[in-house]
Amino acid sequence: MTRFDQELSQRLESLREQGLYRELRRVDSPQTTRIEISGKTYLNFSSNDYLGLAFEPEVRAAASEAAANYGAGSGASRLICGSLKPHHELEETLADFKGTEAALAFSSGYATAVGTIGALVGKDDVIVVDKLVHACVVDAARLCGAALRVFAHNDMNDLDAVLRWASERTAKQTGTHCGRTLVVTESVFSMDGDHAPLREMVELKERHGAWLMVDEAHGVGLYGTNGRGLADELGVAQRIEVQMGTLGKALGASGGYICGSRVLIDYLVNRARSFIFSTAPVPAAAAAARTAITLARGPLGDQRRTRLWSLCASLTGLKNKNGDGTGFTGLTGFEESDSEFSVLNPVNPVNPVYSQNRSVIIPIHIGDEVEALRVAAALREEGIFIPAVRFPTVARGTARLRLTVSAAHQPEDVHRLIEALTRLNVRL
Fewer CB within 10 A of the end CB, N or C, for the chain? Predict the structure, then answer.
């Protein structure tokens, strides 16, 4: 073993001792509620395929047709010769779906954040981010060169104070460039499923003359009119300058996007380096995403959202006989005699009543990293797959199992999950 490999081996051993070692698990099945790993089938409660569209026949057919007509790859970046018809059709569909003038698709959500933030702000500017934003935003904020400030998670008083500081900083600047302030948050946070107070954030950014960028990665497809996102549900979408999202979660495909004004999109085409210098996404992914959007905004999407929120209500409504949330007595939200999803307190998928706690992401907080790995392994022994999430994805000592629900799950799947959690004495 070379000295290079010896040092890396020592670093890996340190990760193992801390319960932070990661390894890839080969999945030999489609992305559905059942996945096969090493010859064993698991009930999957870890996927972001919230609407169950990743294996939807129409979505797969669109990908297959695009591959047959346009090939496996795009051949070049969009600005060379790789800007294919499926890419333009996807962006037209995205803009219409989100109610914006234009849209731009990227190869991934990570590339979307890095390219967009780097294009919008630089060394004379300020970027302000929620403490719990996704790693792609954190990396983009560090790379862009702007002065970085972090506000306490969803704390609008802290954000107000930071924006006041940024305004005063701008007022002191001299020269030809007037620094700008960009605030970045997620609409639905990926690890806890809680919501950003977008109404209050919009009011603050307008009061202080800042721009706002909202990542709807875990909101699009699930909230708002036809699944447009949480900003739409709260009535503030048109007051947000930069609307970001991903195509690989509720929409079941892959890639990321920005929706906004025509000027914004034209600017990103010229200045977003992760867009300019990347080979265009494969045409199959673009066509699949476009079809998924059409399904998500139509009757099928409404049906899936109703089913999904029914399942989520069943899990988040679980209580033990003392009502303290430390055990389970059974499901709420289902008529157990029905084979289909039956909602005792139905949620209107088109105009749902806003709830700060309504989320398809249900964290099971453990704390210790090694213990989180043990609980995840115990669940695998029960035939249920929910991996442990640890540092650096979450802060040290806050390890958890990130339970996610899909509209493709059935009531009996939830029953099985609850029975396993009860046997293991694991509480939500």
Answer: N
